[in-house]
Hints:
CATH class of the domain at 39-92 and 138-229 in chain A: Alpha Beta
Number of strands of chain B: 3
Signal peptide (chain A): 1-23
Protein name (chain B): Putative Zn-dependent protease
Radius of gyration of chain B: 23 Å
Keywords (chain A): Signal
Keywords (chain C): Signal
Strand content of chain B: under 5%
Order of helices and strands of chain A: HEEEEHEHHEHEEH
Oligomer: heterotrimer
Helix content of chain A: 25-40%
Signal peptide (chain C): 1-24
Amino acid sequence: MMHRLAAWLGAMSCILSPVAAFAQEKSxxxxxxxxxxxxxxxxxxxxxxxxxxxxxxIAEPNADWTQEAREHLDAALGRAQQGMGHPIVxxxxxxxxxxxxxxxxxxxxxxxxxxxxxxxxFPGNRLPTKKxxxxxxxxxxxxxxxxxxxxxxxxxxxxxxxDQFGSTGRKMLQIVALMARVPVTSGVHKGYAxxxxxxxxxxxxxxxxxxxxxxVRTADGAAKRVAQLLEGFPGAVPVPAGSGQ
Amino acid sequence: xxxAGIAALLAGLALAGAPVRAGAASGAxxxxxxxxxxxxxxxDERGLWMKADEYERQLRDSAFVIRDxxxxxxxxxxxxxxxxxxxxxAVRLYVMRxxxxxxxxMPNGAxxxxxxxxxxxxxxxxxxxxxxHEFAHFERRHGLGRLRxxxxxxxxxxxxxxxxxxxxxxxxxxxIGSIFTHSRADESEADLLGARYGAAAGYDARALPAxxxxxxxxxxxxxxxxxxxxxxxxxxxxxxxxxxxxxxAADLRAAAAALPPGGExxxxxxxxxxxxxxxxxxxxxxxLNDFEGTDVLLRQIAEAGWSEDLLFARAELYxxxxxxxxxxxxxxxxxxxxxxxxxxxxxxxxxxxxxxxGGQVDEGRQALRHYLAAxxxxxxxxxxxxLLT
Amino acid sequence: MMGPMIGRxxxxxxxxxxxxxxxxGNTLVAAGQRVAVAKSALTVAxxxxxxxxxxxxxxxxxxxxxxxxxxxxxxxYGGIETGRPxxxxxxxxxxxxxxxxxxxxxxxLPALFEQSYRIALxxxxxxxxxxxxxxxxxxxxxxxxxxxxxxxxxxxxxxEAVAAIVGGRLYMITFxxxxxxxxxxxxxxxxxxxxxxxLGA
Lengths: 245, 389, 201
């Protein structure tokens, strides 16, 4: 709950992110779950942000890059849909009370996804009740059904990507820090994709990675990112993944 | 937490870079011609606006925004009068429930005024000067320069970080150093422009230096209470993005002297507009655990006279610290508040609790009975009733 | 309540220093057994499983969770002494936390808690929604409900706490979770657990 500390850690993790110090899991799905064939998926407006990262780790937003990324990612999602075996319906932007409800659930999704990463995917801090083999038990609560009302879709997909490309200065710092044996990442390339059962609120599948590949500013890179985001998507026809970072 | 970081960055963007038009800061009374609706042009600037737009989208739904229509209409009214209807239309104004003294301008024209500032301004003329100051940042594109500068600043922090420990938080938590986080040069320019907007709108610019004098007194008391040295007469420190308050007060005094004399202060209107919120803002301040700073602030506000809400707030402050002598002082202050208004139930509650904690059980219970009779449905009524036996 | 952050620091430090296995991780609390918490005489008998976070908010505190403390945070305060804050200072120089005092009335405890949260979370959006007399550890106690929102996160959380002063020390159990779903789902089992609390085995 310590916001200050969290902010400090946010800053520190930009400066000193542990790079692959632990082999971390990136994706999991609810065991034994099978999606109804042909069921449609409601896609909430993806949260997309692209910018540069200065030596100090400050994000420098870039509107042109973000706009390019949005177009490329939208197109890539459209193509990926064929491989997912389910139609995707983009949720209309709500107004009034519905907007507040969506905002509340987006905030909750972010907190749930962070908790999954922190307490299940990250071995260093894993909770004993979350490390039993094959287990994936996370929820946003049945109230999430309100978000899907009228859409006819049984599932909701939350997507979030955030990219900051390392500047030359940042890369220099990375090299110096490497010699000092302090891990520093250059750039942030994080992506969360989560599929929620709109009837129960259960998280069916989450793919959350703070080190993603693919330059989302290009069509190829966006396709690669979408492929990575949707990797392991339940019931999916395999999507051709790009060739490493 | 990334979001919080960006928010802090946007709220705090500032510094030099921005081309300061020669003579803009001199030549008393001259306001820059209004350029009309501005749109961002360069890559940096559009990126900044995009982020600001996104942040504002969150801000709009934020639980921290005070949505009270009357208070918003009042602040907006003062702002529009100060900068004129055209400029006013370019800005969205958000009154935020944050108990510190601050106002921030985002590069896209979203202006935040914190509740701690509304508690501390004394007159409409002061508020106008501050709102004009913030608008000057927008009009002079100060946010863009800050992004360029901010890069350099954090670079220094980051290199130091590899070697061990500089926390960026120091920058955020500095008392009055962080008041308007733009650069020193930008701040000075905005101070002067703000004074001029206010004067052009018929407000008395001579009111402005007093804000900084009061903030210095308060910050001194806070520092003293926390056993730190006063920053009052400091040279500008490494992190300080603002001129020292002493410098600002002196500059503003000089600027005001150069402006045509006269103008109104509008203090009664301000006090009237804040009145419905003052108790809530005082309560936020009391919960900051800053005894000395709060005591000075209360005495400053009470220069116009001790009203029951101020006496009550001071009593709560003393009862909160809770030394035996504080409890005696608190009981006295509650009694003074009751003397002004016997129907101030919260003072009966406080009096009862102060007496009980001080060991005066019978009198304490009697006071609590007064409170419970007036507020039988209070959220802690059953808890207080349990103290009666 | 602030455990995992410390945990993250510890984990990050572990990575930074390259140390192999210095830090006590999170451990399972089994159902049906009475356990001592917060390095104190306070014991509880959970009816279902919990996770005990390795990182503690302060010297005499301990946090349990089901899904991670942002989603459900059960914190035990095991005998805070006079002159100590409820949990570790976040910024002692610039915004020190208030201290507990054994002379406090029960009605002062929700106020102490609220103020500590406002300062530590840096938010004025902390409210004590109701308080009532209760019995806890065989003593007169206060039970209160609270709510808060952190800056930059916008998730509304609800909480419930019970506190008593025993032998001049503060004993308290707090539970908080997002208002959406989590609080309502878990508060029942928390109340049962709180009812099982006592001093000593």
